[in-house]
Each structure stands twice: as C-alpha cells, then as structure tokens.
Design a protein that fits this description.
The complex is a heterotrimer. Chain A is an alpha/beta fold. Chain A is 36% helix and 19% strand. Chain A is built from ten helices and ten strands. Chain A is globular. Chain C has two domains: 191 residues, Thiamin diphosphate (ThDP)-binding fold, Pyr/PP domains (Rossmann fold); 112 residues, 3-Layer(aba) Sandwich (Rossmann fold), CATH 3.40.50. In chain C, strands 2, 3, 4, 5, 6, 7, 8 and 14 form an eight-stranded mixed sheet that branches. Chain C has a five-stranded mixed sheet with strand order 11-13-12-15-16, sandwiched between helices. Chain C has a two-stranded antiparallel sheet with strand order 1-9. Classes of the chains: A alpha/beta, B mainly beta, C alpha/beta. Chains in contact: A-B, A-C.
Chain lengths: 264, 74, 360
C-alpha cells in the first residue's frame, strides 16, 4: 500500500490538539516540558474546558508556557503561582485553575505558597515538573537535586553536609488535609505518557467536582542541564531518579472534613 | 486477519532531532535524517515506512508535537 | 446624607471596601492595622455582597493573591503596615509591570526593620518612588481623617482601574487607630460578569472565548519591546500627573510661609498654623492629598509668592526632597520632623519654623 493512500484525513489517528498554539517551543530538544504541555492541552481539549481554564505559569524554563497553550494565563513571580491561583479561584470558583511549576519554583522559593495553598485545599490543579535542576539559569542545584548529582553549583556533586537533603515535597503535600489526589508520574515512554495523561485528566475532573488541591508531580529530564542526550537522560532518570522519587499515586481520597480538627 | 498499516508525517522544520521518537518506535520505522533542517537539527523521518503500524508511540513522546499519525486497516 | 457613624480609621477601610463593591480582600495581620481584616471577618461580607476575605500565609502571598484576582478583572485589596509592605514590594512591581489594578493600604509604623508599632510617615519614599524594582509608580493617596480613609477606598479603586495600576492609601497608626465621625458611602453592588466584560474585557483573564488569549504578565524578553512597554508606562504616569493631582490649600492667599505636610502631620500643622498666626506670622499650608502625583506645579506657583517653605513630616525628611525639586531654589525650603514613632507637637513645629525659616 502506498504511503499516499494512508496519509488521508479519514485515516488520521493522532494530530496536534488545537489547544496547543502553532508557536515553536523554546525548550531544548527532548525536554519533558513539551510532552507535559501537550498532555495538558489534550486534557483541556478532550474535557471541553478551554474557555473555563486559567493557567498560572512560573519562573523557570516554563515561564513562557503561555505562548504554547491557547488559554488565558497569568505569569507569576518566582514561587508565587499558588498564591495567584488562590486569588483567581477564590474569586472565580467556577473556573478550572492550574499552576505549572518547576522544582525550584515550587519546592524552593515557593515552599510557603505551595504548602499553604495545599493546606487550605484550594480547588486547583498543581503540575509539578521535577527534573532535579535549575534549567533556565544554567543548570544549578535544585532542592530536589540528588546527592552526588553534578550541577553548576555542585560541581563535585551535591554534598549532604553542605547542601542538605533532596526534598520530597510531594510526600509532604500528601500529608496535608487539603489535598485529595497526589501522584507522581513521568513521560519518558508512551505508556508513561498515557498514565500521566490519565492522572492529569483525573486531577482536572476532581477540580470540576470541587475536591480540593490536586497535585501531579512529573519526574522529568533536563538533558541540557544534565549534559547528556535526551535518550540518555531518560535512562539516567530511570536509574537515579525513580528509586528516590518512586512513581505512582501517593494519595487518592477526599479532602478531610472539619470534625477531625474542631475545638471541643 | 486484517492487517494494520500506518504512516507518520513529521513537521521537519519543527523537529529538533531529539531522537525520542526513534527510540519509542517498536518497529524501527523512524530514524534521524542525515540532512538537517533550517535550525540545523537532524530531523526524524520514516526510514522504514513499510513497518509502520500507526501505533502513535512516536507522537506520544514527541515534545514538540511535530508528528501526525495515520492508520488504515488493509 | 449618608449613614453617620463613629468609627476607627482601620474599621472604616473595611466598611468602605464592602460598600464600594470590592470583590476580595487578602491580608496578613500586623500592628497597627489588624482591625481591617478583623472588621471584615466580623462583618462576613461574603454573606452580604459575595466579597471574599482570606487571611493569607504572608504578605508575600497576599499581594500575589491580589495579582491573581486583579488579573480576572476583580476589585481586590490588601492592607498592611510598613514591614509587610516591604514584603509586598516584589508583588507590587509585578502588578505595575503587568498593568493590573488593585488597592493597597499602608498603615505606617516606624522603621527601619521591625522598628516600633508607633505611627510614622517614613515610607514616603517607598510609596512614591515605587517600592519594588524597575521604573514604575504607584498612585498614592494620603488621607488626613477617618472620613478620607472612607472616601479614598472607592477613589483608589476608581483610579486603579482607570489607569490599570496599583493604588496605595498611605496612612499611619494615628489615623488608623483614631475614632472620628464618618459619613459612610451608600452601597454599590459588585461588578457583574457583564460589567467586568465591559470594563476590563480587553485584558482580563476570564477564560478564552471567541477572542485571542489574554496573558497577565510583566515579562518581555525582547528589549526593544520591553522599552516600548516602559514608554507606555511612563506616558501613563505623565497622564496621571496631568490629571489626578489632588491637594488642599489652607490660608495660602496671604501667606509669607508655607507648611507642606500630609496625613496626620498635616492635622498637627493646622494647630501650628493657628499658633503662628496668633503670633503674627502669616503661615499657610499645602496638604498634598495625592503624593504621587505630587502637586509640583502648585508648589512651583506658590514659590513665586512666598518667602519660604517648611516640609513637616514624621520621617527624617523625605517629602522635603520633592518640595525642593518643585521650588527649584527660588526660596528657602526647610524640613522639620520627629520620627521613630514620635509625633511632633504643634509648638515644636512653630519653634522649628521660626528658627530654621524665619530667623530668630
């Protein structure tokens, strides 16, 4: 069968969603952000909520996320995305509001904002992209950088005595009563992409049902920061990141009710 | 038994040659071209088109959404 | 005549917010302004007008919640005192850079650092020169009475939306804590979806529907375009300077000397004027109501008619710099102030005026 006979509109099975703009992404080749953006756009498209979705982009590589998803966006100061999202959702409770944050933004400079937004159970989706490095500023140590991992500010590898421990912030937010769905996923294989999409879709559906804070960590790569190829980055991630940041749902429940916390 | 035939179209100019689709393909259909696109990347192309089953794996892992997939039963 | 009440300045801020159709208040407790949020929580406006009130985890979060709400075309406000405003400086710069309207109330206390909870006007520079990074301005209103605390909430929102710029009410612990008679405004409903569409439809993030997507951002990596943004901001500030200067002149017609003072210092200076006039010194007062825009032209005009100015402030001398710039060397400009939480007495001011300005 000739290829020309296959490439026909009636045989189309996969195409770029219209929620993604035609802008060429500024990300490096192989960057996980592109895949996560695409998944988000597909979920928004499939749920038919483009008009009801408001995104909050962070400071970091994904600062320009608003160029790629065709929805209304707010661009936050470094770490403050959960506070912006709080302001949006409290005054517009009918909207699907999400933050998109990297490890530096969410787990370092924005720790207070993410903890308290999750603890209040703000009805938002949090997409947390953890690639254990600061990509935009040139590959410095992140709060999630592994011990021994080489970065621009840990040129001999992260040392415990000097830099402290890598932060498992997702496990921390799972402890907070305001979160209902907390999961850790990845996007390095087709199967992983499908699972992440399912998780993000569930998170948005939960927000539609006012279930509180939905937290989706995506363990990701940064081939430029790690200074290896995209394919090698996926392998490095599987070997080094997954044992410390294990994939799967950490919490899947209703947010806590008041009785447990009431004064007598 | 019906056989499935697939084909992919890569947006050559958008492709950054990251190689992830090549690795994700279960039938060794894709490869990076020895020529480069306008940005200097060796873009992905169907080196072995007959083997394609239109499984979409390549498109799923593509960070730049530059792969369109077609499939037909023959 | 509106409803008359005896109220604290801080309480009036809360009441005025509810009555002017404010959509959301986000704040963090700090002395001497905590009554603002306390009053709101007692009033429960969410039951009455649908206004949201939230105690945030910090001032940093509060100002960013304002960014979130303002981006959707809502009337949002916060209040704090000096150390808290320093924490909000980052957010204010972003709000100004993204051209978002909001209202911030600073009930000043004395610094630097933790300082003291006693009143001060030492955040003048911070307020009028733009307290965060970059070339930007806040619209700054300086109330001198509980009545003006009431009036400036609505006015602050009006100016903030007119110019898509953060507005600030710069007051202090004296006016925040004191009780006075106030005529409250009538209730104005919050904007409906349709009104938000009509007033903010070309920029607010209300959900992309049948239009280009809206993005609330202060980021522009292309320096040529970023310069264009800055030129637009500067043109806007100039327009504000041309149209929005507000001040009060008291007994300036026959005055030989002019006191320039704002807020609570201006109240004290009224007594000083009276004492001075009893002693045969012809003193008038110019009270800037907007600190940005500053009544530069009015001071310039006065400088051609009088023998000198004295800027009286509860700071180490901040506004005096702007008075000097306006006077431009035509006549002497002196400063007197008490600070660190000390409020000057009317007599001290008269003495300083005689000693520094008049001689003898």
């Amino acid at each position: 069968m000739d290829i020309k006979d296959i490439i026909k509109p009636e045989n189309l099975v996969y195409d770029k969603t219209k929620v993604l703009t035609d802008n060429v992404m500024h990300y490096c080749p192989g960057c996980s952000h592109g895949v996560i953006h695409k998944i988000l756009a597909e979920v928004i498209d499939e749920m038919g909520i483009q008009e009801e979705t408001i995104g909050v982009s962070p400071v970091g590589c994904s600062v320009l996320a608003y160029n790629y998803l065709d929805i209304d966006w707010l661009e936050a100061a470094h770490g403050r995305a959960p506070a912006l999202a709080t302001g949006v959702v409290r005054l517009n409770p009918e909207k699907y509001v999400f933050t998109y944050q990297g490890d530096g933004d969410l787990a370092s400079i924005g720790t207070a904002e993410i903890m308290h937004a999750c603890n209040r159970g703000e009805n938002i989706v949090v997409i947390f992209v953890n690639n254990a490095i600061y990509g935009m500023t040139g590959g410095q140590m992140a709060p999630t950088t592994l011990v021994g991992q080489v970065t621009a500010t840990t040129p001999y590898g992260r040392e415990l005595d000097l830099h402290g421990y890598p932060l498992k912030i997702t496990e921390l937010v799972a402890q907070l009563p305001g979160t209902s769905f907390v999961t850790r996923q990845s996007v390095q294989t087709p199967a992983a992409v499908r699972k992440t999409k399912k998780a993000i879709k569930k998170a948005f559906a939960n927000v539609g049902q006012k279930k509180g804070t939905q937290f989706v960590e995506v363990v990701s790569t940064c081939s430029s920061g790690w200074k290896i190829s995209p394919v090698a980055s996926n392998k490095w991630m599987e070997t080094n990141m997954f044992p410390f940041y294990p994939l799967g749902d950490i919490k899947d429940s209703e947010k806590e009710t008041a009785d447990k916390f009431k004064v007598q | 038994m019906a056989k499935v035939k697939g084909a992919v179209v890569v947006d050559n100019e958008k492709c950054k040659g990251c190689d992830l689709c090549v690795v994700a393909c279960p039938h060794d259909v894709l490869s990076l071209h020895r020529e480069v696109n306008g940005k200097g990347y060796h873009y992905s192309y169907m080196k072995n088109p007959d083997a394609c089953i239109g499984c979409m794996n390549c498109a799923l892992v593509c960070p730049d959404s530059c792969i369109t997939v077609y499939r037909v039963r023959v | 005549m509106g409803e008359l009440r005896l109220m604290k300045g801080n309480e009036v801020i809360a009441e005025a917010a509810i009555r002017c159709g404010c959509d959301g208040y986000f704040g963090y407790p700090i002395t001497p302004q905590s009554e603002v949020m306390e009053t709101l929580m007692i009033r429960r406006p969410w039951d009455e007008t649908g206004m949201v009130v939230l105690q945030a985890e910090s001032e940093v979060a509060s100002i960013n919640m304002l960014y979130g709400g303002a981006s959707t075309g809502k009337k949002v406000m916060t209040s704090s005192s000096s150390p808290g405003i320093s924490l909000m400086a980052e957010g204010l710069s972003y709000l100004a850079g993204a051209e978002l309207p909001c209202l911030v109330v600073n009930v000043q206390r004395a610094g630097p650092g933790l300082g003291t909870i006693q009143p001060s006007q030492a955040d003048y520079f911070q307020a009028v020169k733009g307290c965060g990074h970059g070339d930007y301005k806040l619209i700054v209103l300086a109330p001198a009475s509980v009545q003006e605390m009431n009036d400036f909430v609505d006015l602050g929102f009006e100016l903030a939306f007119k110019y898509k710029n953060p507005a600030m009410i710069l007051t202090d612990g004296v006016i925040g804590q004191m009780m006075e008679k106030v005529e409250l405004a009538d209730f104005k409903p919050r904007w409906t979806k349709e009104e938000i569409q009509a007033n903010c439809g070309d920029w607010a993030c209300t959900g992309k529907k049948d239009r280009k997507r809206h993005v609330s951002t202060s980021l522009e990596l292309d320096s040529e375009l970023m310069e264009q943004n800055n030129l637009r901001f500067q043109a806007k500030y100039k327009e504000i300077e041309e149209n929005e200067v507000r001040y009060e002149m008291i007994d300036c017609e026959d005055a030989d000397y002019i006191i320039v003072a704002f807020g609570s210092a201006a109240r004290i200076c009224q007594k000083s004027m009276q004492i001075a006039r009893e002693q045969g010194i012809k003193v008038g007062m110019l009270r800037p109501i907007t600190l940005f825009p500053f009544p530069t032209k009015t001071i310039e005009e006065l400088a051609g008619k009088v023998k000198g100015f004295i800027s009286v402030e509860m700071s180490a001398g901040q506004m005096v710099e702007d008075v000097k710039l306006a006077v431009n060397g035509k006549v002497p400009v002196e400063y007197f102030g008490r600070y660190g939480g000390v409020v000057p007495t009317p007599g001290e001011i008269v003495d300083a005026m005689k000693q520094k300005l008049i001689g003898g």
